[in-house]
Queue: 4 jobs
Job 1
Amino acid sequence: MRGRTHAIALLLLATACAPATAPARSGPSAPSAPARAENQVIRVAQTGIPASLSPEASSSNIPFFSALFDPLVTFRKGFTVVPQLAQRWEYRDGAWYFTLRTDVSFTNGQPLSVEDVVFTLNLIAEKNLPQRSYLPNLSGARAVDATTVEVTSRVPDVTILNGMAWAFILPKAYYEQVGQREFQTRAIGSGPYEVVEFRPSELAVFRKKPTHPFRTVTATELRFQTVPDNAAVISGLRTGEIDVTSHVTFSVDQVETLLRDGVGIEYLDGAYVFALASQPENRERNTPLTLKAVREALNYAVDKETIARQLYRQYGKPTGQLTITSSRLWLSDVPPWPYDPARAKQLLAQAGYPTGFSLNGIDFTPTSVNPQLVLALQGYLKEVGVEAEVRSYEIAVFLDKFYGRAGQSKSDLFVFISGDANGMGSVLRGNFACDKRGYEVWWCNQEFTRLFDQALAEPDDSRRVELQQRAHRALLADVPGIFLLTTPLFVAHGAKIANVELTTPLVYRFDTVYRVQ
């Protein structure tokens, strides 16, 4: 056993050989008034881009969808909500009222109206689109007058406002004209760019429109391209063939190498990595993961401290929670699970698996999760007799598995990255509530759902935080999977690229980015 553990340590060490040096929160210093280059085509590399232009495809990829669409609101730093399509809002009698701008049009010249907002929000509610992760209680919307939309929720929900940062508004008339399938590749929106070329999962080219009423962008063209290999991304940043990255997972070694080469690095502490034992799939297959003692054993089996130190150094920390340190749901008295393989084997034996067992796989996408972390997880599980094949998926297939689309389902363990992306912990409610259907129920804990819903309706902020934290504790007590690490979000950009701004985890865009001479 000691030899195997040593081999795992060597595997991790191979990805982290240089001494730790903290990356600057911004890249190389630009002059106080840098001259902008004539060429303002910005080339964005992602490990994988969506297979659809419609935000119906994903609840993430904000930089990608923001080029084409506008949300009702967005965030500044610290989750401060600021206007976008909605110029003001009010919460009264358990409902939200949004007053819209009247100077916004879609690419085809059709004015954006309350009908478009109502159509989009009802589509999210009725079709359970991915945005439901941030609007879990949304029940519908209706037009009050020519500029006002009433948004209702299944239960009173003061967090609806924050979830609207993901509510990219679709053009109702055009969408219905071309149909949902055609819209995926011929989408139009009200954002500052229009599509000039799209190859699903490979390339999307967005060209700047002549004007936009409230967003000022500099780049004349944004080119999002899939670059699945990190070595190619790093090479492209060095040579200038890639200007900026989005949804690319870098190891700390790679970050430090890029910094030495003059590449700029921006980062935020903003996510946790979790290996979900998806409740519906495991119950259907009657796997050992349906037993809480087994799930506890797997937490003891993984040396998270070593993984964090070797892969992320000072940027990654072991965690025993389903949120991040900046979240209002963070529990300061909940430590990570300790590494105790003897205890893991003891629990497995008590559960009826003294020699271990096999799982049908561990799913992940390198777009968001470091492959070395998943290989280390696989190795530590093997140490206690649990065998599982690691399966890597490009982002489009991974999202289909994530949302149960196209006949896809999760393997016994499903490694994903998440966080508190709207400042209210809504994604936790969206992912782990009991009142969803079929594949959408990843885990059901009735006490968590009850307490969290009480929190959503609570107008007093301190009381709401208390209820949300109690809900979080109830979910943690269920041990819905293997708690791993909190990790940073890195965005790399070339030395000639200025004004890359990260505001909050997941919600950032490239409006301010430009190329200097």
Job 2
Amino acid sequence: MSNSHPLYSADMRPGRTEPMGAQVRDDGVNFAVFSRHAERIEVCVFDANGQQELQRFSLFGPHDGVFHGFLPGASAGLVYGLRAHGPYQPQEGHCFNPNKLLLDPYARQIVGRFEWRAEHHAYTLDHPLGTLSYDTRDNGPYALKARVAGPDRVSAACFNRPRHAASELVLYELHVKGFSQLMPGMPEALRGSYAALAHPASIAHFKRLGVTTLSLLPVQYCIDEPALAAKSLCNYWGYNTLGFFCPDPRLATQRDDPSAMLAEFREMVTTLHANGLEVVLDVVYNHTPEGSEQGPCLSFRGLDNATWYRHVSDDPGRCENLTGCGNTVNVAHPQVTQFVLDSLRYWVQVMGVDGFRFDLAPVLGRTDLGYQSDAAFFTALRQDPVLAQVHLIAEPWDGGPRGYQLGRFPGRFMEWNDKFRDAVRGYWLGSGVTRGELARRFTASSDLFHHSQRLPSASINFLSVHDGYTLADVVSYSTKHNHANGEHNRDGRDDELCANFGCEGPTDDPAIAERRERVRRAMMATLLLAQGTPMLCAGDEFGHSQQGNNNAYCQDNPTGWLDWAHAQDDFTALVAHLTALRRSEPVLRRDAWQSPLAGDSRCDVSWLRADGGAMAVDDWHDPSQRALGCLLQGSVAGPGEATRCLLLFNPAQASTRFALPAGNWQVALDSSAAEPGARGLVCDHLLLGPHTLTVLRCTPT
């Protein structure tokens, strides 16, 4: 440390204990840092490039766990890090080591390029005492630093939000870089960036598809795991967040200019809003890159390991690993709850986004009694006046005991429904899924969501997502092909439902190719016409393949980028037709529970056999019959809208003859047809081809 050229002649003064982080005010900067167990915290001032430490100032406190100080004369642009003094007792969960420079958890801008080094650990690697040893080396020259940002400004995107109703949502999950990296017509300078999502070529594609809401894979500042870095791979998906208030610079056109990154992201959201598109962020508040108790001290661990993370109840020196990533954020602690809410609110108000998808969301409701749907975090989230207005989406499972919590999230939460995925795949792939299971999932999984005033839209239906096979690969592979990940094909799910129909991977066999195409089209039609909230995985609309890799988290290359060069335009046209049909017919997107009443022709939903008769109890369990009809009925909401829609499912390899209810029926969709649009009137029966879903509509006479 050098004091030969001090930046500030004034001493640090007592400051305010809120807001947290570093805030410009009153011709200076206020610092507020939480640590329940630290004895002293220092602010270390660096030069503009973050290379040389110039001064250290001790903060005052703690007051209710918050250390604070006001530095007169400081301003936006100040580069700093933190050093925390306190007990070094790893066996008790305390890892204080002032030789380790720490990133402020509330950093708005981050300086430096991270690289894994032994100096980042509080203990000496490979020492016989392990974590009980103590490393005295200063990691300051290599650590990430925070740069003080100017005052937060409300984004213009906050004033032009589309605010789509739940019944109108069609989600589209995408990776910012992967979507545009190879996109035709995209300027080279914009490829793979936030700005690319707001380019006219991207917006035209979104509008053609008929999606309403983009669900972006993580865009908060992340770092790569050491195992990936050692193999010259990266965490492409971004599920390893360290800077919860910063956009990931890897996705920006100007990576070394934090102010430009902020402006680029905000402009992206504003432009998408102006075109009727919402933005939802995938966020990771369940773990951090500091890993297990043997991991480094980068930020949270060095500031207060015992508070920020959950620990094994009878061994406070060990992190509780409910995430599979080594540690679990202790969201049940009030100060950690505040941190998560502050971060979410920042992305809504300052960055302009419209909601969040929470990775491994049961962690947010974990208490000493296990998962609780009325945990304090959920209560605080639902009462927050800003966050109460945005979309809340849960990935309803984590890696801990009783970690599968589908259907048990509170309030306005929507949830990823993997039971829908497995039922639809299994039904069309011929894997033994019954008609009853398909019917239950097709009508928004009432067994899971019809309680506590929840609506059908709570069920987010999907066929594939970033984690797993693409839809094209579901019908092209029978086993995973993850060797490029460097884990000897051990990573990724082994039991994922898929089928190659006779040939692994690409084929020149026309019979196999036709069957794959029919099944894929029928599955897509099932997704976009089902009750609940549909979600597309980017690339599925035109046949993107990852060559059988069902865990491409580290593939920042053509495997993980959308293959626009081989896009199947006819399949994209099918998706566009399906979303248009969904929009045009209210009975296909009702956000109210259907009322199936046996023998009542006025009921909202009726289930029919191929002979036109109502499904009886024994029919639901008859494995020899798989064809199914679904009759949806409702009142007319506008001119030309159908009072009834009939959906006919034929997963068999042979054509099936369906008897139709009385009415003036017209084919609105044939999933197997090259031109899926409306055809002429149909009388009393219809012959359905193999692996086909057909929709008929009946307008008033």
Job 3
Amino acid sequence: MSFGHTHDDASAQGEMDLGQIAGALSRRRRIVIGATLSAFLGALVFVNVVKPRYTAEARVLLENQESYLTRADKERDPAAAPDAEAVQSQIQMLTSRDLARRVLKSLDLQGNAEFDPLADGMGLGAKIGVMLGLARDPTKLAPEERMLEAYFDKLLVLSPTKTRVLQIEFSARDPDLAARAANAIAAFYIDIQREAKRENARDAAQSLSPLLADLRERLAKAEAKVEAFRSRSGLFSGANNVSIATQQLGDLSNQLSISRTAQADAEAKAKLVRDMLRQNRVGEIPDVANNEMIRRIGEQRVSLRAQLALESRTLLPGHPRIKELQAQLADLEADWRRAAERTARTLENEARIASARVENLTSAMEEQKRVAGVAGADEVQLRELERAARVLKDQLEADSAKYQEALAREGPKSSPADARVIQRAVAPPTPSFPKKVPITAFATIAAFVLTTGSIVAMELLSGRARVAGPSPLAAPPEEEALEAPPQVRLAAERRELAFAELEEEPRTTAIAASSDRRTPELEDRSARAPHSSVVGRIDAARMAALSVKVLMVGCADAEHSFESAVTLSRSLARRGLAILVAADAEAEGELYDRLVPDVDRARPLGLADLTSGAATFAEAIHRDLDSRLHVMPGGRAAAEYDQEAEPVLEALAQTYDFIVFVTRDYDRAMFLAPSFDIVLVSGGEGAAEAIIDELARAGVSDAFLLEEEASAGASAA
């Protein structure tokens, strides 16, 4: 027998039959058309009966309105633009209850049925809610308070992405009321911002007023301490805010420098005159030459020398006239020298006077230094007092400027709001709700899609819209079928017919309602087989659980129970992830041919190796080469694994949708049967019914017989 079908057959299983779906939609077209038409008419009636609602829109731009003229600090840059958090904060302000009360009071909506719940009186439901304490009595609330709920339902404030614009939308049945409400909200919002700034300025002025009074008092005390200490220590200030002691010390220093310069000059001149006198160069001395008397003597000397020269031409040196002139010239020379010596003595006296003055100034300066040194400590203390007074004065001036600024900003025009209206709301010409065309179209399309989807879902859940595809044990090609023995062809035909009918009608007795192709032998056996809805039972169990575990027990006379398990497992593999656990080594001949194609024919790892710890799940699970089925053989180990099989089954149930466990061991089957959802028994009717009765006594109720129709012929094929 062929162990399965080809890959092309497997890929065709489980696909949707579009023709079947189209037929189902065609058969139920009246339901689809009726539901769609009903939705269209209902939406049309709704959009024409419901009262229209109009939405007006006003826009406010958030920006800093401070200018150079309104800022107190002219050098300070204006505040930065508001960020995303600031924009959201302003949205919360627009939706505050205080702003809502102002708007409702200005709009005078008391008695408006759209906003005032008491406009038409209290309804029965409202009275019952008040009596039960579930709602507040609106008659005991202020008019604005009881209208807040309707007001907030009709208000929407949002900000477009990446902008600082606040979009104020207000809905009402009256378009003029909607526009007036949106504009009122924007106006009161700006007024609240201005009031907040004025309130801040007022609070600042009130807090600065006592502070200024305290600063003035402290400054007066500090300045009084400065003046008292100055008078007590004598540290009066002179020119350029310098203390008198320091100023006197500077004057003495200047005078001492001048006196020392004069002394040095007089001593130098006197020394020079003495040197010139010793060298008989009196005429070259500047001070002597500039003397009036010396100049007259010099003139007389020149005149006498001229007369002497004139007389010497006619008179001899011994002549009395010549001697007289020479005597006069000698007297003039003596007078000239005496005048020079007198000048030298005068300069020496001036040098001595300058020296004495330097000594006096030096002693006076030393005394003044001592006085200035004594006054240094007092000056340090005085500067500390002056510094404290200056700090108080600076603080007083700064706080006074802030106080004056706060007083100036209390005016209504001096505190601009940080927002301005860039678009005023106007009465909308068209209602915002209902949108007749979109609502009608959406309702119609939704009804059509939901109705159609429901019909398609019903077809898919029922399984009628699935392509059955070729049978797992389909007949071989025509050439091979002609060569096969008659009993082989009959077995393949019967098995294909049986499983095809089971997949098409999973919840009916497929064998009893099969087509005319079945032989009398098959009809007789199916009449005795209450298990004909195998796939239907497994599908029903799959709907109630995440994983279905099926135990297939082969009796002693069941020759091909393993092949039946393979056929069923491959059928389930087309519905989900399935695994076949073959626990008996004697039934694995064909399985080894599929899993181990090499020549050594080594037995693959399986369940016994997994339970003994000699293999992992990845090593114990193998892939069927002709389908999506996973297979776990019995394994190489010889250990008993009945006790460890239950944890393995629970682990497999976490991964696989269908688990088929096949065994011919009676004791193992009786031990593991309570852990399975469905138990299938194959073999002779007597032995199988005995096993089913034994399982029923053990508490397993969902166990039934699985016929093996010509399994030997199918295996040979």
Job 4
Amino acid sequence: MAIRQLSPETVNRIAAGEVVERPASVVKELVENALDAGATEIEIVTAAGGLSLIRVTDDGCGMDESDLALCVERHATSKLDSDDLLAIRTLGFRGEALPSIGAIAHLAIASRPRGTRDALEIAVDRGTKQPLKPAALNPGTRIEVRDLFSATPARLKFLKSERAENLAVSETVKRLAMAHPHVGFSLTMGERTGLRLPRSTANPDGMLERLGRIMGREFMTDAVPIAGERDGVSVKGFAGLPTLHRPDATYQFLFVNGRPVRDKLVVGAVRAAYGDLVPKGRHPLLALFVELPPTDVDVNVHPAKVEVRFRDSAAVRGLLIGALRHALEGAGFRATAQGGARTLETLARAQPSASRYDEPRPDLDFARAGAETGFAEERQTPFAGLDMPTADATAHEEAVSASSANESRPLGAARAQLHETYIVAQTETSVVIVDQHAAHERLVYERLKKALANGGVARQALLIPTVIEVGEDEALALDEKAAELAELGLVLERFGTGAVAVRETPALLGTSDIQGLVRDLAADLLSEGAGAPLRERLESVASRMACHGSVRAGRRLTAPEMNALLREMEATPFSGQCNHGRPTYVELKLSDIERLFGRK
């Protein structure tokens, strides 16, 4: 078959297949153009999921007659000062979006430059360019796309439902809005206003306000600021506390030089930074903004510009991990504030309604009983003894007499221990409930990690070695990892068939359940295998040791012990969650408790 030159119309439609995957792709290209034009207000309107109408209006710099005539030509762009593709400082630069869209739809562009009185409009009808004509428009640009894919109807078969396309459009606008808080956005889909974001300041407070409007007020409350810089690369943004997480990674956002991108780099960096701070299968919430010289990142690796390639990806990953870890450590013992709110909501739902007590009692005839002598006295609950606290409420008398100075501390003064499991503390403005086992588990774990980082865990030799039967496979797994276990202070060796002898244990664990610990470690080693990195295996073993060496539920604590636990929690990073990612305490604000009882 002879080689022939494709027509410009066919070339444009092929290019459209790369740039325009769905209506959200068109919205992305048009909004990026508006941002590059310096817009401060952008309005997006769609109908039928974007298939029948997409209209983007902005108050940017606008285009004059010559620019308007040239903007629909292929590879015509105002966003490259030269032919250097390594110095791209704008969101768009290919010069393919508008001609590609015009090749498969009805495209109309009206624009009026700032400082001028007249506006002009140009139309492209499925590849056919129309002459310029006058238009009525405020300074800025308005672009309308109608009957998308009308020139390529086969593409319509691969689109999803209108609801799914609307959701994709909304997600696209949200991502762009997160990166540009100083720009106001309005999104209307059909008859419904899907999004309205007023302009915010460009400082961290404005960024957090914009993120909170998109990611939820819960994120705004529980986010910690992220900041870091190294070798010309900087990162800023916000990350949620480890106790704030979701079942998927949809709320993890990465922006590179103001461009929202999808990159596996951030997924690995987040997993490494949070480590054991979140439960398995859960994902924290965050938004990170990376700034680096354009020459150190390639944004031209994907037609839709949704992926990038870093010149030194290891350095960027290291910066992200370091900045995240530093911020999470700085958060100290903080846990999500929503834990207390959810607790109060549960209590409120559990409260019986007033009507329950208003129902008539068949066993009481009030008309008859009211005439009886002494009715009130006989039926009143006796007051004797009500002024004496119950045993569960007091736990220990010394807890009640603890120094009130501790109430000014973040976790307050211990006032009681309930069910030998939960410590109740009082601050000046709240009530704090602490899970003593979960909290102490994290404290012991952090001590083990610190000792491990400083060269090894202190050991204590057993007077008589403890022989533990674990099974042949388990004994073999323990023997293979004996050197790693010794770094954590657990010294053991094979002892016959299916058994090991423990000679030394970590001093931090005291007289913990060594047999249960060794059996659990053997099961973990068999299930995890040898694929995990050494450091990860060591921390996993340390976590298991901490679980066995911490204060167990059911142990009665004295007031000094409870207060000492609270003070150590305040001084220990990550103590707001246990080794399994669950919160170690909830805080109930006094004002919320008063509302629960109708006092406010």
